[in-house]
Amino acid sequence: MSEEITAEPAYTDLLGRISEAYVAGQVRATQAVHSHITKTYWKIGRDIVEFEQGGKARAEYGKNLLTRLSRDLTVRQGKGFNRSNVIRIRQFYVNYPKGATASHLLTWSHWVELLKIEDALERSFYEQQSVADKWTVRELQRQMKSSIFLRLAAGKDKDAILQLSQQGQLGAQPSDLLRDPFVFDFLKIPEPHSVSETDLETRLCDHLQSFLLELGKGFTFVGRQYRVPINNTPFRVDLVFYHRMLRCFVLIDLKIKAVEHHDLGQMNLYLGYFAAEENVEGDNPPIGIILSRHKDELLVEYATYQMNSQLFVQKYQLYLPNREELRRELEWTLQEAAENGGTQ
User: Fold this and answer.
1) Which of 135, 220, 221, 245 has the highest CB neighbour number within 10 Å of its CB?
2) Mind listing the pLDDT tens digit for each residue in 261-276?
3) Cβ contact 287:262 at 8 Å
């Protein structure tokens, strides 16, 4: 009797709906807990700051206030009030005096990482992107370590930087997929050790989860050494992805040496093939990205003259970028924009 019931479509539908409702309920319950903890810590931070601003109380307790609170709260409440966390709780309120501006979709562990970032623009980007891409704490740490905000901001004007900070990376157009540079430190290939293109491709596929995180939201892996049959000539694209938001194929070729003009022509050939042979109704034109250790800007400019605008050449590196250099570039851009605005 049980087997007959199980086989019925109505029972299968019931089973599915109950499972979906249960999972959705678990998610909402977890989010409610995170939201409650965040709001509670914000209120505690407010109480601490208001106490400090009491004048006499601040003078009496001075710098020892947080240490004393940590000790006494730990005795009363147990875990959660070590000195570093009490400092973060106070800092949380100081940075977000209007509690509604702080996302309650993030865990307190996310906020502990975010509060380590002093620059408000940079912190806002990571906050927005953590929510949009549902980054785990470990993924957030990885993106912060790789300076993804500074790399995305490189070369942008002030308005684009502010939009990036306030909305995160939207992925609404092909240029949103680019990094300056892409960073493959997760491969743990020490400098100056060199690898072949085949070895690099294999390592990226072996670390596909980290590679997808570096590429950004929306990428779905299709295949490696993807066959492109043209007049019986064995062309192959190193890596092929499909981007869900842009609704297009993304073709990636890897180069360990500087890009040459024929590399651009070959990628353009691949783009033409995918547009004609692989695209289906609803797909947008494919995007081609050539990743190279070195990039000759002038050669690329001339070689892509009047060529497919969906073709990009980007640099990659095997180690983390110089954060201070990227930050100086960002500060210079914002300062220049302020100076130009002030003279108009």
Assistant:
1) 135
2) 899 999 999 999 999 9
3) no
Name the pTM for this structure.
0.81
The full DSSP string for 81-150 is --HHHHHHHHHHHHH-SSGGGS-TTS-HHHHHHHTT---HHHHHHHHHHHHHHT--HHHHHHHHHTTHHH
Domain with CATH 3.40.1350.10 in the chain: 182-320
Which residue did the predictor score with more confidence, 98 or 273? Answer: 273
Q: Which of 129-143, 275-289, 301-315 has the weakest average pLDDT? A: 301-315
The matching CATH number, chosen from 3.40.1830.10, 2.40.128.110, 3.40.1350.10, 1.10.10.60, for 182-320 is 3.40.1350.10
For the stretch 49-82, pLDDT in tens is 988 887 655 655 566 889 999 999 999 998 889 9
Q: Hey, what long-range contacts does 57-60 have (CB within 8 A, 24 or more apart)?
A: none
Omega prior to 97 cis, within 30 of 0:
no
Q: Reduce the DSSP state of residue 260 to 3 states and report it.
A: coil
Q: Are 311 and 271 in contact (CB under 8 A)?
A: yes
DSSP letter at 69?
Answer: H
> Residue 260 corresponds to which tokens in the numbers above?
């040459």
Q: Sort 99 into a burial class: Cβ within 10 Å, 0-12 / 13-18 / 19+.
A: middle
Neighbours of 292 (CB within 10 A): 21
Dihedrals phi, psi of 337, to nearest 5 degrees: -65, -40
